[in-house]
Amino acid sequence: MDLLTWLTEPLQYGFLTRALVVTIAAAVVSAVLSCWLILMGWSLMGDAVSHAVLPGVALAYIVGLPFSIGAFVFGAGAVALIGVVRSTTKLKPDTVIGVVFTALFAAGLAIVSSTPSQIDLLHILFGNVLGVTDGELWQVLILGAVTLAVVLFKRRDLTLLAFDRTHAHVIGLNTKFLSALLLGLLALSVVVGLQAVGIILVVAMLITPGATAFLLTRSFDRMLVLAVGITVAASLAGIYASYYLDISTGAAVVLAQSLVFTVVYLVARPNGVLWQRLRVRRSRRGPSARAHVGDEPAGAVS
Amino acid sequence: MSTPIASPAPPALLARNLTVSYNDVRALDAVGVSVGTGSICGLIGVNGSGKSTLFKALMGLLVPAAGTVELYGRSSREARQRGLVAYVPQAEDVDWDFPVSVADVVAMGRYGLMGPSRRASAADRAAVDAALERVGLSGLRRRQIGELSGGQRKRAFVARSIAQDAKLLLLDEPFAGVDRSSETTLTALLQELRDEGRSVLMSTHDLAGVSQLCDSAVLLHNRVLARGRPEDVLTPSNLALAFGGALEIREP
To answer: Name one Pfam family in it (chain B) (predicted).
Structure first.
């Protein structure tokens, strides 16, 4: 089988083309958002929101609403609940997040188990991208486009919020609104992503591309481009791997992203672990020629 | 307290009776501070003396249990919305690995003046260029912010205030982690800004720097121990009150 046939063969199936479109759309939206989430330190928040949408998705299927409405209501509700409990207790943020999302996830499992015939739990948890309907495809595309447009329009404010919240406040920006906006966008991208890879793995798409890109560059704009490039490549690789190796699509996509992260972690200059080892070995062999000057960049290489 | 009564213009900063408590600990007890227009005021005190809390109260980041803040005769909120106030954070409050360039950081000073998407106009770009030039960082504008030295980092954040055209600069420990030659550069820069009519309130441990640079000083230990001209404030007996046994005076 030549390469062209190898590449085009899966696309003759409509369900695979739809899967490809949904996965890439969800992956791009998540990758863009991941650049801010990892800089804000909100990775755990992504995990929380994704688990917390389970009851929303279940209820939406039961009453016949689009899944995205139920998911968004519960995702945003979880964020609000976490905010309320945090601001009214002295518990640490990760504690509050842990309590809230496990509670909502358990509620979701309870709802699903009490109506077993209507909902396929495995599809919600692990994604069912090969079974995406046209309606679901459009929900993903429209919500994805809205999320992307808002993020890109407000990207400079969001970067400022992540970098220096105090300055944002001092020049009169509404930092509470910006935080809420970013959380809302996080909830939206979870909704978009869970069709592709499911509730459990959607957080990977919201962390790994940004984390990989962060290791490769010190410019935010380049980080955005790299995160998107990495996630598109990984999505394609994942879908084809899923077709030819007959493995779960969501798992294959996330594995492909993790593989890219691993390679970058090991070899990317100048921060790759392998290069650092090599440098340490070289400097051990001979005395270091570099003297330490007082006004050198502090902590430039860590 | 020596607020110039003859001048009709309100002072750059006038805080009265500020009281802030965390749980049962009183961080600020009826603190009053005033900074005249075109002057530099040094805020001196040990860690935990309430300097950071005072800054937060001035910037409206916390609501005091009692007391008022006026910046150029306006409420803190109004002054912030008009872009009158700038804050230069202390080194440990900044994520130096954040992927922003020096020019990106300086441009953030202009955001209050830009449209909702913060797209820079020609005037914004010119202001950023001028601010970078002024603090001597034009050649390093593309560097990632953490790739600067301690002194250059401070100057980058002061350049952000200049690009903003802020009238009142709040600096948190500007000389911490800064070597001697950068300290001289930074001191000269702050003096220039004062001579343009801008006002500065800076917290510092550096007592020698205060007497050189500041027009007035406030000695803080959760309440105001002394205030006035630096030479009147920095007397051995006052310093013993503020610093207890842990006093170390660096001679200029």
So the answer is: ABC_tran
Cross-strand partners of B25? B22
**Distances A250 to A48, A204, A237 between C-alpha atoms, Å:** 19, 10, 11
Which of A37, A166, A171, A295 to mutate to probe the B interface, most B CBs <10 Å?
A171
- ipTM score for this prediction: 0.90
pTM: 0.88
Q: What is the DSSP letter of B202?
A: E
Chain A residues closer than 8 Å to B60 by CB? 169
Q: Where are the alpha helices (DSSP H) in B165-226?
A: 180-195, 207-213
Q: What is the pLDDT of residues A123-133, one digit of tens each?
A: 888 888 888 88
State which fold the A10-285 domain adopts: ABC transporter involved in vitamin B12 uptake, BtuC (1.10.3470)
Task: Classify domain B10-84+167-243 by CATH number.
Answer: 3.40.50.300
Which tens digits make up the pLDDT trace of A18-74? 999 999 999 999 999 999 999 999 999 999 999 999 999 999 988 888 888 999 999
DSSP string, B34-65: EE-TT-EEEEE--TTSSHHHHHHHHHTSS--S
Alpha carbon of residue B216 to chain centroid = 14
